[in-house]
Amino acid sequence: MIQRTLWLHRNGEISTSMPTSNSPRSGIAMPLIRTVLGSVMRQGVDADQFLRELQLQDAPLHDMTRRIDLSVYDQVQEHALKVLRDPALGLHMGEQTSPGTLGLLGHLLMSAPTMGDAITQWMHYHRLVNDAEPSRLQVEGEQGRFIYQFPRSTANCNRIRAEFGLVQLLKLADLMLGIDLPVQQVQFEHAEPDYVSEYHRIFKAPVRFNCAHTAILFPAVLLRKALPSANPGVYQLLKDEADRQLVNLDDSASLADKVEQFLYAALQQGKPTIVQAAEHFGMNERTFRRKLEGHDTSFSELLGQVQLNEAKRLLAIPTIAIDDIAERLSFSEASAFHRAFKRWTGLTPSEFRDQAGRG
């Protein structure tokens, strides 16, 4: 029965920028279900009947903190495809997107200072929406390539999610920039469908199928573009709330995992001390140290790992200067960052960037 597998616990699962030892649940945020339901209603289908057919008539759709299992999301999308008889459902859902479709994350993106900042927040906070692998940004010369990741299941659902995700990205980018995003190319993993003309109508750019990744290509210069929708005060408030939700997604996550996530967020405001971290988790420093030792780690080891992960991610973006990366990671000076990175990897930041560019 669907009802027995429908609900995860209220907040879902902890998110980190790298894999943890915990097995991820296939959680989907409630706003995505409401997006499918909205498409059904716009076509004149009775929403109550649609939900009854899926045994979801008692689902708390207005509770934005709820998450559902991926198998239920599959059934909702497959049923919508059947009821609406619209093979291009994913594209058409994407056209109806709004920042609210992504809940808190959507509004955070809209208030970001630059397009690059918005993409960074998408990658960092994606677990607020679903438990897919993080999306990736690649920059090669003057071209940016955003590789979009989504929860995988059936062929139909994979196609719908790929279409919906890229059209959603396009529409949000248009809203943020105040102009149409100049798309250079769009790539999909699935085969070319019969309704390919819809892709060309929406993206107004070359579209390729049977690709290794689902991705959208655009001029890299846009990553530095200041957004008309930027709002520094709102941006910081929403980031604080997103950090709170991310850290508290899973009560069963280890303290080490939660400290890692705290550090990812805290580094954006400056290098946190162990005392500040201990206070954040309601402990004194001695207890905090002891509990981390119980996880075979320490505060300094976790901080170094987070700084290394962030350094690698930022070095993969050629438009960000190495001195700026050192500052973002709260090193006292660029030379300190160079020494630490060499100690961690055996390479200088420049050598690592060169190798990443060749790879």
What sequence of helices (H) and strands (E) makes up the elements?
HEHHEHHHHEEHEHEEHHHHHHHH
Instruction: Count up the domains.
Output: 2
Q: Supply the CATH architecture of the largest domain.
A: Alpha-Beta Complex
Tell me the structural class. alpha+beta
Computed over alpha carbons, the radius of gyration is 21 Å
Question: Main sheet?
Answer: 5 strands, mixed
- The number of strands is 7
Share of residues in helices: 40-55%
**What would you call the shape?**
globular
Compute the separation of the termini in Å: 47 Å
Strand content: 5-15%
Q: Could you tell me the mean pLDDT?
A: 85
Question: How would you explain this protein's 3D organization?
Answer:
The protein is an alpha+beta fold and 359 residues long. It folds into two domains: 2-224, H-NOX domain, CATH 3.90.1520.10; 254-358, Arc Repressor Mutant, subunit A. The chain is 52% helix and 7% strand. It contains 17 helices and seven strands. The chain has helices spanning 2-5, 30-42, 47-53, 70-84, 89-95, 104-110, 115-125, 155-177, 196-203, 232-247, 255-266, 274-280, 285-293, 299-315, 322-328, 334-345, 349-358; strands at 27-29, 67-69, 136-140, 143-147, 185-187, 207-208, 215-219. The strands form two sheets. It has a five-stranded mixed beta sheet. Strands 1-2 form a two-stranded antiparallel sheet. A hairpin with a 2-residue loop joins strand 3 and strand 4 (143-147). Helix 5 (89-95) runs parallel beside helix 8 (155-177), helix 12 (274-280) packs across helix 13 (285-293) and helix 15 crosses helix 16. The longest helix is centred in the middle third of the chain and has 23 residues, at 155-177. It is globular. The relative contact order is 0.11.
